[in-house]
Amino acid sequence: MRSLQLKAIQQLRLFESPIPDPGPGEVLIKVSHCALCRTDAKMLQQGQRDLVLPRILGHEICGTSVETGERFVVWPGQSCGVCPPCTRGWENLCSRMKIVGFHTDGGFAEYVKVSKSSLLKVPESLPDPLACLAEPLACTLNALEQGRVSKDQTILIYGGGPVGLMMAMAAKSLEATPFVVEQNPVKFQRSEKFRGALGIEGALDGYSFRSSTFDVVVNAAPSPGILPEGIHRLKDGGCLCLFSGLTGDTAYPASLLNEIHYRQLHLAGAYGCTRRQMEWALTVLNALPEAAACLIDGIIDLEEVPAALEAILAGNAMKFIAKL
Predict the structure, then answer these.
(1) pLDDT of residue 205
(2) DSSP code, position 19
(3) How many C-beta atoms lie closer than 10 Å to residue 56's C-beta?
(4) What is the residue-wise DSSP string for 227-255?
(5) d(CA 140, CA 272)
(6) Closest CA to 43 of 14, 2, 16, 5
(7) DSSP H helical ranges for the chain
(8) 125: pLDDT strictly greater than 80
(9) How many CB atoms lie within 10 A of CB 267?
């Protein structure tokens, strides 16, 4: 089968690989589409904590069961099911987690083997390329859950890339009011159609909105300056959710921590997603397919993935979907 393997950092090559042989509890999936993620691009450039090389990348997968012909998306985690986080429904925090496209081979190949428990059926009316967006959308739903977002709340989202925009879509599905800040003028302009489709307000800075303070602030961008600015923009008792990892080793002053103390603010982290959240994401995508389609820059061949990953790293791309 055709596959795209990261042999070593900055060494991504097309290979002819054997079709995987599924073991007990595993299913062989014929990959239809696999979306490209900024994490894939970063793994190509510099590696990643959970990456085991060599590796076929790709974790935003839609395909069909070779055995039954049913369509599925793949929850990319393989959790143990018995540790405390797993038994509490937080399988994304499993200490023995194995991730498709990180620890095991992923979806930039014609076939992939995955745990049967990782499969979620795709709604009949949802096209495969849109179904690929379920995993990143589910991660944003996890962030909003950690921030305890509810109806009629205001949400300030730093970052107007594909994940920040999906987070805004997720907030709209919760009947909250999202506001998106994006500092890159090119990316901000490119998001106009998506924001218009859902009635989402956006700005090139955080101080152009009608609301001056917000119930929840989420960072969908890695700038360390978002943390103090976001805290200042919270209503008393509000919550800041750290969704994107911050870059650098910035030290924050005690006065910032004291603001959390005196204003009874909340800090939350969000990492990955659960199977339940992926099911929820499929429902959101099925309800808003036209808006979701605005996030897709193009459907590309496997041979075009390396160039698309470079475009993602350059910072102006939305979502590319590889068709296998």
Answers:
(1) 78
(2) P
(3) 22
(4) HHHHHHTEEEEEEEEE-SPPPS-PPPPHH
(5) 8
(6) 5
(7) 38-46, 84-87, 128-131, 134-146, 162-173, 185-190, 192-198, 226-232, 254-262, 275-287, 289-293, 305-314
(8) yes
(9) 14
Contact between 69 and 32 (Cβ < 8 Å): no
Q: How many whole angstroms separate alpha carbon 74 and alpha carbon 132?
A: 9
* Domain topology for 137-269: Rossmann fold (3.40.50)
Q: What is the CATH number of domain 2-133+295-323?
A: 3.90.180.10
The domains of the chain are located at 2-133+295-323, 137-269
Residues near 263 by beta carbon (within 8 Å), at least 6 away in sequence:
234, 236, 237
Q: Please, what is the average pLDDT of the chain?
A: 95
83/10 Cα distance (integer angstroms): 36
Q: What Rg do the C-alpha atoms of the chain give, in angstroms?
A: 19
| Cis ω before 76 (30° cut-off from 0) | no
Burial class (CB in 10 A: 0-12, 13-18, 19+), 210: exposed
Q: Report the percentage of the chain scoring pLDDT > 90.
A: 94
| pLDDT (tens digit per residue) in 166-185 | 999 999 999 999 999 999 99
CA distance linking residue 121 with residue 65, whole number of Å: 10
Q: Sign of dihedral through CA atoms 229, 231, 232, 238? A: positive
Asked if residue 206 has pLDDT above 80, the reply is no
Q: Quick one: pLDDT band at residue 109, thresholds 50, 70, 90? A: very high
